[in-house]
Amino acid sequence: MKKIISLSLVAIAAMVLATGCTSHSENSEHGKSHEAHWGYEGKYSPSHWGEMKEEFAMCSQGKVQSPINIIPTEDIDLKALDFKYNTNSMDVVNNGHTVQVNILAGSTVNIAGTDYELKQFHFHTPSENNINGKAYPLEAHFVHAAKDGSLAVVAVMYEEGKENPIIEKIWSKFPLKANEKVSISLSANDIQAMLPSNKDYYKFMGSLTTPPCSENVKWNVFKTSMPISKEQVKQFFDTFEHANNRPIQNINGRSILQ
Ligand SMILES: [Zn+2]
């Protein structure tokens, strides 16, 4: 039984990590194809995800869902996250829901003794998580998987300010059409530089914020935000022509450590 559970976790993780999307349409014109499955507007919006497919049931039935409004419940001495981001990016894909940069194998973060390998990072506007009731114009999710398939997300908030040079590199490359992928060469240094130098963070359990909304995802959200210009946020928003944030979910009594 245990084996079946962990295998299916790996399968889900593999699907999610591959494209950030679990389904593909045969006719993918105009970049709207994925909305036939799930999206952010109208009958495909987050409030309907749970009814769309049996596999998406957690989106409506889960009790440990993301995103949340982060209000810390416990002050403890959280161990520093140990980043070893030492590989370059591979490519950047517009999957119809977001812009996702895939990373070559070998970059890891160690969280409480377990290594999680960085698979990809992607963006949401406005932010999905809030911190003490505050939303940010953009949030990046660095998605990692351990050998057993369990997932850890490291999130970076962006605050409106000066133009962000690494974001500029990504924005200048990413395909404007859904389901297109191009190569992009961000160095390991570029990727490290996307993280704030002050690495204090909030830690809590949650889920994927997109279908199938799988739970048991370890969330780590930096307290310190990074800058992004108003024009850069607009450029991302205009590509999709709508927000791509799932609404805040119930905390249901979970601990939020800092
Ligand atoms: Zn995300």
Largest sheet: 11 strands, mixed
Number of strands: 13
CATH class: Alpha Beta
Helix content bin: 10-25%
Our Rg estimate from Cα atoms comes to 17 Å
Low-confidence stretches: 18-36
How many helices in DSSP terms? 6
Number of domains: 1
Helix/strand layout:
Blueprint: H1 2-19, H2 46-52, H3 58-61, E1 69-70, E2 82-84, E3 89-94, E4 99-103, E5 108-111, E6 114-124, E7 130-131, E8 138-145, E9 151-160, H4 165-171, E10 180-183, H5 188-192, E11 201-206, E12 217-222, E13 226-228, H6 230-240
Parallel strand pairs: 1-7, 9-12, 9-13
Antiparallel strand pairs: 2-5, 3-4, 3-10, 4-6, 5-6, 6-8, 8-9, 11-12
Bound molecules: zinc ion (ZN).
Question: Any overview of this molecule?
Answer:
The structure is a single chain. The chain is α+β, with helices and mostly antiparallel strands and 258 residues long. The chain has one domain (2-20, 65-240): Alpha carbonic anhydrase (Carbonic Anhydrase II, Roll). It is 20% helix and 27% strand. It has 6 helices and 13 strands. Strands 2, 3, 4, 5, 6, 8, 9, 10, 11, 12 and 13 form an 11-stranded mixed β-sheet that branches. Strand 8 (138-145) and strand 9 (151-160) form a beta hairpin. It is globular. The protein starts with a helix and ends in an 18-residue tail after the last helix. Residues 1-18 form the signal peptide. It comes from Arcobacter acticola. It catalyses: hydrogencarbonate + H(+) = CO2 + H2O.
